[in-house]
Sequence to fold (121 residues):
Amino acid sequence: MTKSQTLSRADLEELDRVYREGGLRTMASPHVHYHDSSCPHPGCAQKMEWIDFQLELFGDPEGTYKPLVRAWWDGTGFAGRCPQCGGWIRFTTLRREPLTDEAAKQLPQLPDNWHTIAQFA
Fold:
């Protein structure tokens, strides 16, 4: 593929589906690269281009690791608060999006201190 060619949204979503299936099979710990590095909340300068969530370090396989890893790889994603602005964010393999408090309640949630354990670049 040359530099001028880009994948269609459908092609990207199909590649993401295959990627997620493999991750779910192995229950791999989530890590991600986002092309847009900033927090999705307007005015927030928090950079989150590369994130290794390191969920295994929470020491709670049944209560934290497994539910969040399953949600990550099945495409649901999970919610966590931005370490800078405190706004809720939905993290998925394809994107981050801002959430309301009500929408965040509907998703599996990262622990409050997730950002102190995760690795950012």
About this structure: Residues 30-120 form one domain. The chain has one domain: 30-120.
